[in-house]
Amino acid sequence: MSTGNSDVEIDEESDDDGYYDYYNNCEDTEMEPTDPQNADPEYFEFTCLSKEDVERLFNECVESLCASLPVKPSLAKLLLHTHNWKTSEIIINYKEDASKLLIISGIKPAKSSDIDSQALRSIKSLPCSICLLSYSGEYFRSLVCGHYFCKDCWTTHFEIQINQGITTAMECLGCNLLVPEDFVLSILNKSFLREKYQQFSFSDYVKSHPKLRFCPGTNCNFIIFAKEFQSKRVICKYCKTSFCFKCGSDYHAPTDCETIKKWLTKCADDSETANYISAHTKDCPKCSICIEKNGGCNHMQCYSCKFDFCWMCLGDWNSHGSEYYECSRYKENPNIANESVHAQAREALKKYLFYFERWENHARSLRLEEETHQKIIDRINEKVMASQGTWIDWQYLRNAAALLAKCRYTLQYTYPYAYYMESGPRKELFEYQQAQLEAEIENLSWKVERAETTDRGDLENQMDVAEKRRTTLLKDFLSL
After folding, report:
1. Does the annotation mark 297 as catalytic?
2. Where do transmembrane segments lie in this chain (predicted)?
3. Tens digit of pLDDT for each residue in 102-136?
4. pTM, entire model
């Protein structure tokens, strides 16, 4: 922790690559009011919605699509779900080739059924091809594909799927046709199963909508709506949980979602866990859900999105053809480094530990500074009770502690960003700004810990400098 003041002292002969003059022009100038969207790199418009609000949003989308296309509401909902609620895109594709759209969406079979449904219903006794029990034709049900089965078999099929959490992806017992909502509800009689089905379906609809994200807060049932799908911070106004809208994990600016995922996985791995993950699990190349290989066959089907792919290369299984074995051929790097494998491994470990130690150190500092924050609150209470000022008089101390946490949090997440950056001028600029931010944060931390003996003007000036450093870095490097 620095013991110096907030002014950065620079040796006349120091090599700062010309960045110092550019980023340290602190002349006070009169500024016109600015648009927060341009002034604040973390500015993000979002709304917290209840389940009822989101259901109304879904219903409006369904009604809008039904008004534009001759489809039933249940099929409109399936179309919207399978195409990420892109109404205009669905309408365009439907007008270009309605049959093709319905087929690729799993709503219409590629080959029309030649079964006469009216004639089938008039049959007095007919065996079900699954349970082999005979019923009258009226006891059979089918989708447009014409695969008829008794209601009992349909009910059993639905119960199994729902208990596994599968609803919108439920398929016909005889083919890959998706089962619409009205068909399922017409078969299910048990109220708890109907409720479970609708609950899981609602969850699937939210997850497929690019403008919606469930709040990850404990026992929080609210949903965030945002017009843009970006890796920006949202804070639930009900449970106060802060998270990244794009990936749903802890907010991680300036690091992007994919990079922080790699970093956290790397940090969490030990030797046995890393070996197991490498050997047995991979992310689905279409929906990115983690899949475990539990058999010898390399033909995999994602249980979530039903995508068929090759375990070895993660390519589309249908495109393998004669190139099937190409995916297992290792392509040597012609420019392999001259160093030994052990030397390269040691250097890689050294680099990782450098960044990890700093990442972990700032995480520890955040926890310790939270204790300092609480001590400040307790001390303010004592002063107010002793008539040594009001809450308003001492509020600047709480503001300083809160800003310190905000800056420290950003600084912590600069280290994964730097770890994965390629060497070059951009990384040099980033590391310069990172160092400047770190220096100001340590100065602020020092003054916050000695808040009662620090001049208020000096503390507030340090707060301003630290926040400007943080904002500058985010403006230049925040990944969306």
Report:
1. yes
2. none
3. 999 999 888 876 666 677 777 888 898 889 999 98
4. 0.72
